[in-house]
Design goal:
15% strand; 7-stranded parallel β-sheet; single chain; alpha/beta; disordered C terminus; 15 helices; 436 residues; 6-stranded parallel β-sheet
């Protein structure tokens, strides 16, 4: 399969990661990929660092002459590269791709929506999503419901695919837990609460610091705070100022960028996603869950798709967050329940990679491609595209059927097992990134 992945994102955020990791997986599976990005951006720099086949264009131009020139360049690319599918991960050039599809009719068009902003249901957007695109992929239920109820996207075109994690990398590891806790000076009775995320207002570090400080001040002397993060939109000095202001310098550690994030996650007793908005893909949440650490989080983005109601609290509500932390510290049954629920989420239907879903999707919408799996690499744990599967050293569980609605289910047989492709996810194969 030949695909163009349009990743015109300025930052290397979750949307850019999603598109570029998909590109890596496609390349590793023997497909041909061309990634289109924006010049002089962090996402383009990361794509070049990963040695992705890239072409940098002003895909976000807004001037009439710029748009006309871009349309000509994109048409030339299509004629030269001859893609079977074009996957738009952002909307700025989506209209041009729709017009090109109508003019040339030589490729299938997919719109992947990994962002938090609900698109306006105007005539042009409805035409693009409902009539022109062959598939619309969402990464969380709020976006799925918006397309389902407001846009009225035909069910056969709408596919919800949650984010993914490589459980051969992010998994329970007692040796790593012991090593990191010893390095950071944690005792056996210390209860370590951690947040994985770059320092940015959206990630909610300030709220978590206040919640932990409140609990510490109320006599929970064994609580510890571990911030797995580094300078970003918010400087580390600002974060340290918040910690000092709350009087918890002695119980708080900041990791900075580290190559052993999976090991650091194992040192936690409770993970927190305190984000005030966003989390439409939630890499950090999935990595914490895969490590076998209980997780609580705000009800933004995809989090309600991943966590039980007992683990959710309102974004920005410091008191509610503190209450959830206190409950996890004092109620072993609750912690066990959270782990078991997370285990089910990791197990239910999450078996094969997005690259396979995309390939079958193209085949199912017009027969451009033959059914893929006879020609695909083995989907094993140590080569090709690894399965996503649960490790349950801490959280003992059994896989159960999904109790959440799935859209546009496509069924096929893989090594004798039946899978529902609407539940499959892209996988993260390498832990080289610092934190989300």
């Amino acid at each position: 399969m030949r695909s163009i992945q349009v990743v015109n994102v300025r930052w290397f955020n979750a949307t850019a990661w999603y598109g570029m990791y998909l590109s890596r997986l496609l390349l590793e599976s023997g497909h041909e990929v061309l990634v289109l990005g924006l010049p002089d951006t962090l996402s383009a720099r990361k794509g070049l660092e990963w040695e992705l086949p890239m072409q940098l264009l002003d895909l976000n131009t807004a001037t009439p002459w710029g748009i006309a020139a871009l349309y000509g360049k994109l048409k030339g690319l299509v004629r030269e590269f001859k893609p079977d599918v074009v996957n738009c991960h952002r909307g700025e050039s989506y209209l041009l791709w729709g017009l090109l599809k109508k003019e040339l009719g030589s490729f299938r068009l997919v719109r992947t929506r990994g962002d938090q902003r609900l698109p306006k249901a105007n005539l042009v957007n409805r035409w693009l999503h409902n009539d022109v695109s062959d598939a619309v992929i969402t990464t969380n239920s709020p976006m799925t419901r918006h397309f389902q109820n407001v846009f009225k996207v035909p069910q056969g075109k709408l596919h919800q695919i949650l984010g993914g994690v490589d459980t051969d990398v992010f998994r329970p590891d007692q040796a790593s837990r012991d090593r990191i806790r010893a390095e950071l000076g944690y005792g056996e009775k210390d209860f370590v609460v951690g947040l994985l995320g770059r320092f940015d207002r959206v990630k909610g570090q300030h709220e978590l610091i206040r919640a932990v400080a409140g609990l510490y001040g109320q006599g929970m002397a064994n609580i510890r705070l571990l911030l797995l993060g580094f300078d970003s939109a918010t400087p580390e000095a600002t974060v340290r100022g918040w910690i000092k202001e709350q009087g918890i310098e002695s119980i708080t550690a900041i990791t900075g960028k580290r190559p052993d994030i999976p090991a650091c996650l194992n040192a936690l007793d409770l993970g927190v996603v305190a984000s005030l908005w966003s989390e439409t893909i939630a890499r950090a949440a999935l990595e914490i869950m895969a490590t076998g650490v209980p997780l609580i989080g705000t009800g933004v983005g995809v989090m309600p798709d991943l966590l039980e109601p007992a683990a959710i609290f309102a974004a920005g509500d410091v008191e509610a967050m503190a209450g959830r932390i206190r409950a996890a510290m004092t109620d072993r049954d609750l912690a066990r329940t959270l782990l078991e629920a997370q285990g089910r989420r990791m197990a239910e239907g999450i078996h094969i990679a997005l690259v396979d879903h995309l390939h079958v999707l193209v085949a199912g919408h017009g027969g451009l491609m033959h059914p893929l799996l006879d020609s695909q690499p083995h989907l094993g744990e140590h080569g090709g595209i690894p399965r996503i599967h649960p490790h349950a050293e801490r959280a003992q569980h059994q896989a159960v059927g999904s109790h959440r609605p799935r859209l546009g289910l496509l069924n096929l047989e893989i090594t004798g097992e039946r899978h529902e492709l609407a539940a499959v996810t892209p996988v993260q194969r390498h832990p080289e990134r610092g934190v989300a």
